[in-house]
Structure prediction request, 305 residues.
Amino acid sequence: MLGRLLEQGAAIVERKPNVLTSRFGTEVITCQARGGAIHRLLCKYGPTEARSGHGHRGGVAYEAAVYRHALESEWMGTARLWAVHDDCERGLTWLVIDYLDGAERANWDSAAILPAARWLARFHTTMERRVDAPELAFLSRYDEPFLTPWATRADRLVGETGRRRFAWWPRLSECYCECVELLLKAPTTVIHGEFYPSNVLRVGDEIRPVDWESAAVGAGEIDLASLVEGWPERLARECVENYGVIRWPQGAPASFERALDAARVYLALRWLGDESVPKTKNFKRREKAHYDELDRAVRRLGMIA
Prediction:
């Protein structure tokens, strides 16, 4: 398959597993052009039909469509798409994009968070104009049927131990309905869906987001909430302010801050209510953070005493 992409005389000189892998298999392919130039590609493999998380995550084929129809025409620093190959006999899809040499993940670099927030604001501004474009009709939509069930799922999965953490837990569904309303009223755009620092790479001074299988049409506040989660309040506040100024130069909507907290509530419930998320030691460590974020957000929203 790669042979069809390479110019005559070019060759694959090395293949090795990608250390920073995703939930699908990935490897780094090093190619040498006829003239000696070296180019490296990232190849991701996965089932063509691989949706999970109650429609939250697509799969390799879905991510390939995001690159092809949403990102390529509005290139803002994302990896270049080289090819998509469908192995129909085995039901597999291969996604081939640029491998970003020298990239550092933003979850290891607090200095990358503010530039990432600025990149995000520009991306959302650009994509807001395209949410109804015919070529983006395949994107998942964070509409009421998608958003509403997360409180019920979380309530079912956390059990009595989780419910006892907060006296207000019995009112969770009632509070979450208000959050859904805030998110549905917020300006919609194309969002990454999991714009956590682990999915944000920095190459030099450039921000390069990766792993677009959760891209959707929804409130941009969801991406912003995921980016600033867990960072010191001062840094998070600076990111929020920079995002608002860049996305809305004439002034952010009056409901922006409340929609941002509503997004925090959604994200916490989505993680707590998704049975497809492996309950690893890392998840257990993150679980407390999800509860804490949920508690702070609902209190700021004034939904509980």
About this structure: Residues 281-300 form the longest helix (20 residues).
